[in-house]
Design a protein that fits this description.
Layout: E1 2-4, E2 16-19, E3 22-25, H1 30-43, E4 48-49, H2 57-60, H3 65-80, H4 106-112, H5 125-144, E5 149-152, H6 174-184, E6 190-194, H7 201-207, E7 213-220, E8 245-250, H8 256-273, E9 277-282, H9 299-310, E10 316-320, H10 326-342
Parallel strand pairs: 1-4, 1-5, 5-10, 6-7, 6-9, 7-8, 9-10
Antiparallel strand pairs: 2-3
Length: about 350
């Protein structure tokens, strides 16, 4: 299958993140994409294309105008406030405070448009996130044009970003933007299956009241794991979207036997939904050696994952999400994709 990737996605190159009460080395780094690209070439998996430029319109179908404006103006506001390094929010409009009116000050804007303090922003962040979204959109166009599958090598990732907030290393919801674009291009129903170790809270929030985009996620139980505030089994959708949001939270430590049972349940739900296209939010952090995660998938399990996804028999767009065992990322990613192709 074809891969879509732009070197422009590497421009977001954070130094630090806030986690565990410390300023630590960032884990969502350009090397993640480079090692995946290198393995695709080494394995001869197929062509790597540069994304087309889709402009702002497909982003605005999913994201709030004020949020996009914030991302676009962030660096000039940050530097005008006398800052020059990486930005982190530190104040949020939680219960009892007011999110409207939107503040003028960059420190207020950072809190208004984020949900965590663990996600560094810099001068090149929005440009890299736009390039990443263009890769997802180009992959969607390949699948809409008849390719059985495509791989969008998205980085920065997207599944934690909602209509009007960033967090979890995510700024633009690449999978959600691709899903909406496919709907606008004529797909009646799109399923998004998120297999990242962390719940895809942003994607869930974007489609929570809709029945045309089915969202499913297998992830670590939010009672014990990031993002803590979404991803429980009882979140099933609202209004017209009731029944079209499916969470499979698992206790930390889940191995292939436990994890693949949830995968199979999700695939059964997808078969009943009968979508025109399947989007896989492909997080590689369920891997047993991932440094920030606690599931136990092996490298061979990713091949099995690809094969099971292929059995759905649907045009499939893979969109990269997380995965931080950098040395193993290329193998785990290509195992999934070649497992799919063989399946
Ligand atoms: C992004 B993606 C661990 C801190 C975890 C946030 C994790 C974001 C994961 N002590 N920080 O879903 O892989
Ligand atoms: Zn993750």
């Amino acid at each position: 299958m074809k891969t879509v990737f732009s070197p422009g996605q590497l421009a977001h190159d954070p130094r630090h993140e806030i986690s565990d009460g410390e300023l630590k080395p960032a884990v969502e780094i350009p090397a993640r994409a480079e090692i995946v690209r290198a393995r695709i070439l080494e394995a001869g998996m197929g062509e790597i294309l540069a994304p087309e430029e889709f402009g702002m319109a497909p982003l605005a179908r999913v994201h709030d105008a004020g949020y996009l404006d914030f991302l676009d103006s962030f660096w000039s506001r940050w530097t005008e406030a006398g800052r020059g390094g990486e930005a982190f929010p530190f104040v949020w409009p939680v219960r009892g405070l007011r999110a409207d009116p939107v503040p003028d000050h960059i420190d207020g804007l950072l809190g208004r448009y984020s949900f965590d303090a663990g996600t560094p922003m810099g001068e090149e962040t929005f440009a890299a996130a736009r390039a990443s979204a263009n890769s997802a959109l180009t992959g969607a166009r390949l699948v809409a044009g008849g390719d059985r599958a495509a791989f969008a090598l998205c980085r920065p990732p997207g599944h934690h970003a909602a209509a009007d907030y960033y967090g979890g290393y995510c700024f633009l919801n690449n999978a959600g933007i691709a899903a909406q674009w496919l709907r606008d291009a004529g797909a009646a129903r799109v399923a998004i299956f998120d297999v990242d170790y962390h719940h895809g809270n942003g994607t869930q929030a974007i489609f929570y009241d809709r029945s045309d985009v089915l969202f499913l996620s297998v992830h670590a139980d939010p009672r014990e794991e990031y993002p803590y505030f979404l991803g429980h089994a009882e979140e099933t959708g609202i209004g017209a979207g009731e029944g079209f949001n499916v969470n499979y939270p698992l206790a930390p430590g889940a191995d292939w036997a436990i994890w693949s049972a949830a995968l199979d349940a999700g695939l059964e739900r997808i078969a009943r939904f009968a979508p025109d296209v399947l989007i896989v939010s492909l997080g590689l952090d369920p891997y047993e050696k991932d440094p920030i995660s606690r599931f136990r998938l092996t490298q061979d399990d990713f091949t099995r994952l690809g094969a099971r996804l292929a059995r759905a028999g649907l045009p499939t767009l893979f969109v990269l999400e997380g995965g931080y065992a950098v040395d193993a990322l290329g193998v785990n990613c290509v195992n999934t994709l070649t497992g799919f192709e063989a399946g």
